From TrEMBL, chains A, B:
One of its GO terms (molecular function) is protein-arginine N-methyltransferase activity. This is Protein arginine N-methyltransferase. It comes from Serpula lacrymans var. lacrymans (strain S7.3). Residues 741-761 are annotated as: Disordered. InterPro entries: Arg_MeTrfase, PRMT5, PRMT5_C, PRMT5_TIM, SAM-dependent_MTases_sf. GO terms for biological process: methylation; regulation of DNA-templated transcription. Residues 524-700 form the PRMT5 oligomerisation domain. Residues 752-761 have a biased composition (Basic and acidic residues). The keyword S-adenosyl-L-methionine applies. Residues 360-521 form the PRMT5 arginine-N-methyltransferase domain.
């Protein structure tokens, strides 16, 4: 793996002791050219870079600052005592007030003062600050100190600051409020919340007892010596803290996470998978997290290993800390980095991304990017766009196979007529001819295309390649006539959600070309949904120009920073369906439809659909949208699928379609073990087709007495027969949404169609 | 009670039978002048008006329309059968398709066709339409029919249409989606959802069996013959249906409710009180709801009586139906209306509103109106504004009492010095003089005022009324000096939330005038909160010009269309506080504060506050904001209070302050028996003071096995010691909010202050 395709960036963090030692042993640079050794920080940062770290993390402040702050802000808070005591307190309070009025550092209270020292440096904010202390004054003064530190870091042009973790669930809203205020007051800088993945107290790197122990009446960090494994609850609780912080900060894109992996992780991803949907920018890995392998070299525990491998997809900055203190007997400092590079190389996501021919490789650069939908009917596509899709190695192979099978199984006949409806630059015509050749059946191909530019390419290919076995017809399949009816109608009008590029409506028009006993390839397709969480996509949706409209249309997206919230089955009485659920189906030719004299449907009512799906949500999460997929049966056993659980069986490595993303305007919190009901409609009027979608969350409630209050009755019955007597309605989001106002006309020629983008364009 | 101050508007609805009878017996108008008798509808509407009804409700369509619709849309849906049967089905389907393409009525399918017939008429949409049928086609065609009916009503210039109720909890999202589409397609018209207050099936007025019974596989309206009383669950379920409909319709202000009170109501309001927060425009009361009193006259059951009395506050339209069929033996048709007028007259809210001197009377016209806050420090108030507040009969009486008590209890002294800080046009100066007179203590009054215009009035009053016992001082209390320090400092700087007009900051400046052992009137004040629901206030907040800003500032509001969601105590372990809870307190003079040479605080840090409150929510509801109140101790037992549970004891009929309303940007659904945690902060920097607030909902979770799914563990433990092992986090709203950017400067003279409006201005 060469440098440019690395997924992880390595950083190392310095301790206060290392900085002190560097200062104490600092000798002025040997020559005036050694600019980068002029100060202790420059020297040790330079040394770290020469050992392969791309970034360094430096504590912004020194112990002197902590002493002064505690002296002012804790002593003043103490109060009481004798007269002398009292005078000292008043003096401390006076100093504190003067500081609050105009917060500033003394030189020896900060570690850096030069721009070159701060370059490429991540600042570690004082980790003893308690923005969520129980004590009002400690909270208040911690916030002033935090702003002071961030303002100083900003002065030094530092781009990223890592903030101390929230510690108290009860006061996390105060923590969150302070962070939000900082995001507003400090421009540009990324604020990254350091968050121990569970059990926060265990991970304090500060060896000195922290100020809170002086002031709090309650031991703030009640560290029980626990069993090693994190219970799921604790992992959930960590995420819940984060969820509150980022909600209060309104999903500010400058707010990121530094996941502190000090405690060992469980070996199954389960609840951990939700971190894939969060902006984890840094992973903090102290030497103490590593265990020694049989040879004494440092390796990570199994659960942490697989989590780090998985995280590579998000190209994290991995901060190695305390790696120069000789925690492990073998390998020295470089062993830790080498091990991380080993995990990177052996990460399945990295391997998939680097292997040619995979969707992951094909999609590089497109992850989580909201694509403007293609409109192949309204807009005439460019040749380059056709070319991109024609390169799909799987899609056309399956089409050929389907046509071949249909021909082979076709009853004896002198001449089988194939009609390609929407021929584009001709890939399906070519595949039809190959299938005819292989099947040795007598057949003739009509190719219908309405894009005048692509029609030139078709004429070219007919002359150069196809000859007399093919007849080209120029025009819209919904209005033209063809010389004779076909036995087999072949089309490729499918979108990421199946019907979302108006395949049903177009084929309604083309069915006039098909004999009564003819077949359509594809003969049916289904649309599928799963609920997802992704702060990334939520923010991308909001950043669209018109925020009120941006959440009202589905997008084509290659998912990465996304977590699917549902799990198979579950729920009370097992009424929840699988992780991904089918909404509806379309079949061609359609049965028993009433048509007008020209063979066209009178209205489009028969193409409306609706579905109500119930999902089991095992772990608490936030619903940001729905993932949409399709499956199609081309002919009997041959199909196409982007359904996450089926695609590898049906059409592995097919590249043409990324999933559809149906966004919600407002996030909806889903508790652990809740049920999510999703309603989705495919709607139509005389000009348009669009989707609307809606979600409700239900939490199973058990009959149990509620102590206290006048109201002892638990709501155990409901009107809803479906939900019988076991659930209560929990929360309703707002999004009922119209899609873009694209025009659609099933009877006249010039109409547009619904949003239809899919893969890369 | 004269006509103009009536609270209820009476309407009557006609049945199909009455309309048929009117048509059958219709004789052309006697003379050309009898324009209003030209058609049967005009005649019976005219007769109804002459009997005292201000409005009439008329079914928009006839039985003919229902027949045709069922013939097309139900027959076509049936399918199957023999060849002849099949042909009939195809023919029906063809007719249905032609109708769907271009929906229209035949003359005999509608009841009205002239503008004058529709004038003052509320249209009843076909009540057999099933927008939430199980059957896709019935739903689809019901929606087309609904749009057709609304379009026709709109053509006739009808302003209000009453829609059939949702019937299926499982498909209410489909119902809601259809209503939302209608709101968008029909401009101006009010759509009012008819909603039986519980158990929808019992209230169908249509005597013919409805189409759904033909198509649904499941009996849609399983009417059990129940005990008379509605269980709370059913009342909650009705509200839940409504909540989904209006949420999907995004709180469209043209969407209202027609509460159908056919079933008898429980006698305690309890869960019914939530309807006070909803846009109940009509109350539907059929004769069958009335019971006969001992004399045989119609009266309402107790529960319904008190609900109707309570509803008068919202000035409902009461629709009397079936009142001409002789249901009751005595009184005839007029007995029903007379009874409603009797309830109106005896309604406590009507009585309070009509009685001079009550807050309700004073506030007429101001209910639920978001007031632009007063800025008495930044803006110099107008004389008329002072006059309004000076008329408060209670506030100044209590001030005088407090000053009197303070004087009487004052230690022996030659001369007691009173300083009125912020004298305005002089009401507190006058009251001080009265108190001095009554107490017979030797005292002198300084009156400080910074409004140059009011200072002219003060000079006038000194010359005309006060004489030498008063010395006027012009200037800002935060910067001027006065000749001698005072024993008693009197001020009236309180806002609706106590400290929200910056009383703490102003008094910090004025404390320089007070002797070390002096007292301040008021000597302390507290701020209080309660969570509230109100679609009205939610919409009012959103309608402000800049929607992103409009939810970020508190407003002064006289609440009416509002329901307080909390109840006293309750919760697991009784950890929830009372319905209204105290946030924080300010005391004057402040103790042990560090000040600078001039006696002013160095920073404003000591005036920051924060509170975390836990409320018990007995019935499901939607949180739209917080109600803010204050209480003040003027001197010992004398105070001022707008706290809803205390105000009548402390300062009954005080008019000067309406409550403060802290809005939330996004509604938060609160389940029954949940707990609401509210965080609120009073924050400050060198220029400003503002509030931020945040709410989280928790639902108690019991340990019980969860059947099904891989995940059998109920989350029973949490990190949070406060919430111990019994709750799970349910939902997080977004609102963390800065108040308006008003400038505040505690040390210099020219600063502005925070929003400070309160009562009428």
């Amino acid at each position: 793996m060469s440098g440019w395709d690395r997924f992880a960036t390595l950083a190392t963090s310095f301790t206060h002791d290392e900085l002190s030692y560097a200062s104490a042993t600092h000798a002025p640079a040997d020559s005036p050219k050694d600019k980068d050794k002029e100060t202790p920080i420059l020297r040790i940062a330079g040394e770290a870079r020469s050992r392969g770290y791309e970034l360094v993390c430096v504590p912004l402040t020194t112990a002197r600052w902590k002493e002064r702050w505690a002296d002012m802000c804790i002593l003043a808070g103490e109060g009481g005592g004798g007269e002398g005591e009292r005078e000292k307190t008043v003096e401390a309070e006076r100093r504190a007030e003067r500081w609050r009025m105009s917060p500033s550092f003394l030189r020896e209270e900060v570690t850096m003062s030069r721009l070159d020292e701060a370059e490429g440096t991540i600042a570690l904010i004082s980790d003893w600050l308690q923005l969520d202390a129980r004590d009002d004054w400690v909270r208040h003064d911690s916030e002033i100190a935090l702003r002071q530190e961030l303002a100083y870091a900003s002065y030094l042009n530092i781009h990223t600051a890592i903030l101390p973790p929230p510690r108290h669930r009860a006061h996390v809203t105060s923590y969150a409020r302070a962070i939000n205020a900082c995001l507003k007051s400090v421009p540009y800088m990324q604020l990254s919340i350091r968050l121990p993945i569970y059990d926060p107290p265990s991970t304090s790197t500060s060896s000195v007892s922290t100020p809170q122990l002086v002031v709090s009446d309650l031991p703030v960090l009640p560290r029980k010596s626990k069993a090693k494994k994190a219970p799921e609850d604790e992992l959930n609780a960590t995420w819940e803290m984060w969820d509150i912080v980022r909600s209060v900060c309104d999903y500010n894109p400058r707010l990121t996470l530094t996941l502190d992996l000090t405690p060992p992780l469980p070996t199954t991803l389960g609840v951990l998978s939700k971190w894939t949907a969060e902006p984890v920018q840094h992973i903090f890995l102290p030497a103490s997290t590593f265990i020694a392998n049989t040879k004494g070299y440092p390796v990570l525990p199994k659960g942490t290993q697989s989590f780090v491998r998985q995280s590579m997809a998000h190209r994290p900055i991995i901060i190695m800390s305390d790696v120069r203190s000789g925690t492990h007997s073998k390998g020295g400092e470089s062993a830790y980095s080498q091990y991380i590079r080993h995990l990177e190389k052996s990460s399945p996501v990295v391997q998939a991304a680097l292997k040619a021919g995979t969707v992951e490789n094909f999609a590089q650069g497109y992850q989580d990017y909201l694509q403007a939908p293609l409109q192949p009917l309204m807009d005439n596509l460019q040749s380059i766009t056709y070319q991109t899709f024609e390169r799909d190695p799987v899609k056309y192979r399956n089409y050929e196979e389907a046509i071949y099978n249909a021909l082979v199984e076709w009853p004896a006949s002198d001449r089988i007529v194939i009609c390609v409806a929407g021929a584009g630059r001709g890939p399906l015509v070519a595949r039809s001819l190959l299938a005819i050749q292989r099947s040795r059946r007598p057949a003739f191909v009509y190719a219908v295309e309405k894009n005048p530019n692509a029609f030139v390419t078709l004429q070219n290919r007919q002359e150069m390649e196809w000859g007399s076995g093919v007849q080209l017809i120029y025009g819209d399949m919904r209005s033209i006539e063809i010389p004779e009816q076909a036995d087999i109608l072949v089309s490729e009008l499918l979108g990421s959600f199946g019907d979302n590029e108006l395949s049903p409506e177009c084929l309604d028009g083309a069915m006039r070309f098909l004999k009564a006993d003819g077949i359509s390839i594809p003969c049916s397709y289904t649309a599928h949904l799963a609920p997802l969480q992704s702060s990334k996509l939520f923010n991308e949706t909001r950043m669209n120009k018109d925020p009120s409209k941006s959440a009202e249309t589905p997008y084509v997206v290659m998912f990465q920073n996304v977590d699917i919230l549902s799990a198979d089955g579950g729920g009370l009485g097992g009424r929840c369906g699988p992780q991904t659920q089918e909404c509806w189906e379309f079949e061609h030719p359609r049965k028993d439809g009433v048509v007008d004299d020209r063979g066209l449907p009178i209205t489009n009512s028969h193409n409306t659909r609706s579905a109500k799906l119930t999902f089991h949500i095992p772990h608490a999460g936030v619903l940001h949208g729905l993932a949409g997929y399709f499956e199609a049966v081309l002919y009997k056993g041959v199909g196409l699928s982007i359904h996450p659980q089926h695609k590898d069986r049906v059409s592995k490595d097919m590249l043409s379609w990324f999933p559809l993303f149906f966004p919600f305007k407002d996030p909806l919190y889903l508790p652990s073990n809740s049920e999510l009901q999703v309603s989705i409609w495919r709607l139509t009027n005389e000009r348009q087709v669009w989707y609307e979608w809606y979600a409700e969350s239900f939490l199973p409630v058990f009959s149990a007495p509620l102590p206290g209050g006048e109201d002892h009755k638990t709501p155990t019955s409901s009107h809803d027969p479906f939900f019988a007597s076991t659930t209560t309605h929990v929360a309703v989001p707002s999004p009922l949404i119209d899609a873009v106002d694209s025009s659609f006309s099933p009877v006249s020629g010039g109409g547009g169609r619904e949003e239809g983008g899919r893969g890369c364009s």
